[in-house]
Amino acid sequence: MKKIRLPKLGYLQIIALGFFGIIFTGAMLLMLPISTKQGNTTTLINAFFTATSATCVTGLVTYDTYSHWTLFGQIVILAMIQIGGIGFMTVIAMFSIFLKRRISLHERKLLMESAGTMRISGVVKMVRRIFFGTLIFEGIGAAVLMMRFLPEFGFARSLYYAVFHSVSSFCNAGFDLMGRFGEFSSLVRYQLDPTVNITVMLLIIIGGLGFLVWNDCLQTRFNFKKFELHSKIVLFTTAILVFGSAVLLFLFERNGVLSGLTLSQKWLVSFFQSVTPRTAGFNTVDLTELSESGRTLITILMFVGGSPGSTAGGIKTTTFIVLILGAISASRHTRSINIFKRRLDEHIVKKASAIFTIYMTAVLSAVMIICAVEPFRAEEVLFEVVSAIGTVGLTLGITPELGPLSKIILMILMFGGRVGGLTLMLVLAEKRNNIPIDRPYEKILIG
Fold it and tell me: 265: burial class by Cβ within 10 Å (0-12, 13-18, 19+)?
């Protein structure tokens, strides 16, 4: 009898299938009547949309998390956020470590791809740091939020709310339980609350920096001069985006949604809105009331996203800075790209350009298709599409009204945004043996 040979999966394919497995399992659980407060079965498309959004730590929802889902459904969503945030391979590896099972070379390579690290040596130690570091940061965040929520909700509810929002913030997910004060209201109720705002912002930033940066900080004892180039670029770009965007939002909205607030309150709201698009999905102002300049800036921030190997999405901060440096280098006709007294490999520039092109192609294609089947304006659709592929979760309120085709498109974008656009292309690409032929050179005009 002839044996059936199953196709051998690559590391990236295993990671992509792992995420899909989590989404499928979560969707099946969310379809159970026990998951909804009405006791009804949630439709397949909406269950899958919610599971995809949670696992891909996005935050776009068709139902308000508090109003529609029971405690069981909310815990399922929270579990998907946590697994999707730190990576399912990290969770599996920690089970192996607790069971004192030896982690094979194949599993170490999977961990390396999942964690986004560049070296296989020390990857198990790094996974431990990721796991326990996540618990520590989320625990501290939950403790602070609980103290704030305690007078308002009582012990049990404040503890649950604190844990839920701490995990959602650190994993850059954007899911919230504040629908009890108004559906889809996010954190608008706490717009001027420094404790909630600062805690959530810090969790978002730390989660969005990336596990490589954490590891580097610990190994160098926070000595910036000893940081690897990757960490320096991530921290520098993050600081520029956060502070620069806050200043721009302050200038754009000072006479708009920020009018009527004191100077310190305006800066608090501006900073929160500059942090959350990268890529957490919370908001403390009504996004539909923002000026066109403000919404455009937030769209750009959502597209850029966080940093590689983190809980965030988007094209990533390193891709963004490499593209800018590449443009500057090309305009000056210099052969090399230098930053922090180091030279970048030319292959990195090609990879950054490929990621940008893939994301832009996906965004524009999705916008055209959704605009063709939905009655919404292109601006609203663009905001929603970029929010999905950037795994952000901010919305202008059109998600619940979208048809099945549009929701499927957004699900594909969320999945691709979490796995990574270039990674998804490599997963889907057919393996070919390319013949090494050097073709003759010929010049063309560019620009």
Answer: middle
Flag whether pLDDT at 116 surpasses 60: no
pTM (global) more than 0.90: no
pLDDT value of position 435? 59
Is 363:385 a contact under the CB 8 Å cutoff?
yes
Q: Residues 6 or more apart from 101 whose CB is under 8 A from it?
A: none
Q: How far is CA 81 from CA 61, 128, 165, 292, in A?
A: 13, 19, 11, 31
Per-residue pLDDT, averaged over 23-35, amounts to 94
Which residues is 83 bridged to in the sheet?
none
Average pLDDT over the chain, rounded to an integer: 84
